[in-house]
Amino acid sequence: MLILFLLLLWANGQVLQRRDTTKGPERSFFTLGNLEVSADGRWSAVRKRYEHQSDTLLLFDRRKPGQVIATLVKLNQQLSFLSSNRLIASGNGKALWMDLSDLQQKVYDNIRQAGALSDRKYFYLWSKNGDVAVCDNQGKVHRTIKGLQKLITDRDKCLYAVRQLNDQSELVRITADKTMSLYATASEITRMEMMPSGNQIVLTETGLGESAPYITFVNTQSGQVIRHLPEANKNFDYVKVTEIRNGKAYLMDYQSRTEPTKDQVVDIWYGNDNNLKAKKYRTEDSHEYFFLDVGKQAVRTISTDRFPVFASANNTDYLLSFDPQKDYNYSTRFPLLDIYAYNLSENSYFEIFERAADIVLSPDGDFLLGLDDRSSQWILFDCKSGNKTIINKPGLEKPVFDDKGPFIYFESRDGLYRYDIQKQKLDSFLSTRGKEVSIVSGDSYKVNDLFNVKVSSINSSKRFIVKANGEDNRTSYLKYDGKKLRELISPTEHHIREVRFSNDLTIAYTIEENYNSPPRILVKDTKGTQKLALYNGNSTDRMAFDIKQDIIAYQNSQGIPLKGILYYPIGYDPARKYPMVVHIYQIQSKDANVYNYPREDGAGFNWRTLIEQGYFVFVPDIVFDARGTGLSALDCVNSALDGLNSFEAIDRKRIGLTGHSMGGYETNFIATHSDRFATYISSSGHSDIVRAYFSYSYDSYMPLLWQFENGQYKMNRSFFEDKALYFDNNPIHFVDRVNAPILLWTGMKDENVRWDHTMEFYLGLKRSNKEVIALFYPTQEHILEKGSRAIKDLNQRTLEWWDYFLKDKKDVEWINKQLKKRLSR
Fold first, then answer.
1. pTM score of the predicted model
2. What is the pLDDT of residue 17?
């Protein structure tokens, strides 16, 4: 009995010690990321990510599973696997060459940058004094090029650098054995950029007696030079160059920024101003466009008299033109564009899309896709014939053109679809129905930084890889080889953080985790089925393996099937009753297989900490419908709680509700309509959605109308179309109905959800004589800063709040200061 008594004392002491689980660094928890794999699939590297640092790299040999062959610290700036089982890594002013076969190594000091060269048979070291050393695979310096001021690389073949030579700036191409001069100029080269095709380097130059910058195109192979000086003595702040058809042409956008006068007395906001983003910067941008035909070496000016913005159509005959601010009323986050084609040879315009939300271009420039906002359907425009075709199926996402066939692939939540351009036929692609499918290989890049215009393509004659998620949250990866889909990674119930393949796709590496399993590295031969554990990650987190979870299926009152994740208290005893914390946002069940560890969370909620403290944690899904955001959330949460009726170990009188941001709004609203919770914690959520609807966000630099009408709130109607909808879903209108203590908090530098929404809800609760405490963090934003005093304070207080109201631990002075005053009245 004495021994048992002592063991119980020890166990209680351990439980009390768990109160410090939010002090993460003392627990040495870490995750894994930035997985890199050698071309042949033998070697791999991964970054070890602690809460406050991630400067450690672990190296592995596939032939030695379970063994870390080397650990590199502060060498995580860049890592390249070289041929013949070598690597070069750099960081913190150093570089390390290593022979992975026998772990011989060489360290180089005063290094600015390092990387692979000449198909990874050599590597380069760019020192802080400007010299570049080209080294062979044995780590020996092969040759040195001195005095380089700027340097870019095409990843693993060549370097391109600028150096001063006899009062001139010289652009050179550097390979393992040769330094070749491509271009020399008496002016100063202020910027250099490699175009996506690698065919041209674009230089920004100043000088030659002129103060204005100008653009020079240098062919990376032939050294052919095309210079463009648009207008003497005219200043430009920035020049954006967009490549067309792999370097056959270029669109140049010379941008100027107009600053307001410093002695401005008044800031005037006009009712016909459709560019309210400029109010944030207090500047206005102007554009001058020029089109360069490389074959003809001819540059022509593009007039902005009719349209202020031009973008590449990836076509040498046409440009896209539009006015992004025309009739823009901010009911959508981004302007819906009326897109016109500008015929370069005829100097004429014709409309191709109305109210387009996205534009996707084919790699050959023959086709354009526009997403029609009204029908949610894609429209295909044929640049050669001028014909338009509607692809008659909503829900298709992220189109990708096949650059070797007449096909377009679409992702969707119900499988992969393929559209035959010639036959004008859309079909479900192979055996992917019922799965959420995404294409993870291919080539995609934006041709316009401000609006959704991009080129997106794959080469199906070679291969492409898709990721498929089933309704059971199982993930697989498949390869399409031009004929059929073949599994590379079989469906797994684990969350796959990252996946990497050898160059020939025969070896697959994954970082996998689950709610009860820390991230680990697995490797497999893609022709087989067996996975091998290469590294088991943080195996010292033994408590993770004791975590118990249930997936709760339920329906809301509209019959929509939903799921919730129920986490059990550590050391769960079915004969006991436990309090429960419910966390809400929107769809959260997709994260059921994601690893978590106790840490100070920037939103004040960590389910791992709570279950270690003896709480059930329930994370239900929420969907919105025509009743409005708040009423929909209330219905979903009530239905979710009903789905737990058979769980007798949950103490129904000791359930708390919490949410942050959108979850904070939902918590605010539910608190005004529910009697099922003993307490609430709400953070950084809107309290007055009518005021928020008519507010200007200094986070997104625009009015928030879009967020309610067509954004996250999904009201799908303006305030003027249905005022009752907004009033009925507005927490502040019902603040006097809150009937349980509530803790509010916010960062006073939050521009995502203005901090005074928390103040408003606090004042409404105070005026209604409700139990409320509000925490305002003066220096914090929407998410509290890692390692700050504020985040430590918040996580300690939220835990004390739950303990006070759900566990009757009443010895908390800062809470008693509110409750005791109330009781003394």
1. 0.91
2. 28
